[in-house]
Amino acid sequence: MYHLANECYNNGKGTEKNLEKALYWYQKAAESGYTDAMFNLAVCYIKGKGTEVNLEKANYWYQKAAMQYKQIMRSFLKHLIIHQV
């Protein structure tokens, strides 16, 4: 879902660029827990790409992405500590 949104519809690889479809697939991927999609969805809402500017939705998705990244970094740091890398 994410790659369909990002590569195809956002960047126009293999198909015509279509920001509305990119937004749709970012939304699907974000709702499935894909962190990069959450971030890109927030960017769409803050810049009005494929939709009207919506700062509330942008903030919501930025916060969800930040929480996901925070959890990923905690796990990574825990791994480093355990394995003394």
Automatic annotation (TrEMBL):
Which source organism does the UniProt entry give?
A: Rhizophagus irregularis (strain DAOM 181602 / DAOM 197198 / MUCL 43194) (Arbuscular mycorrhizal fungus)
Superkingdom: Eukaryota
Name of the featured protein: HCP-like protein
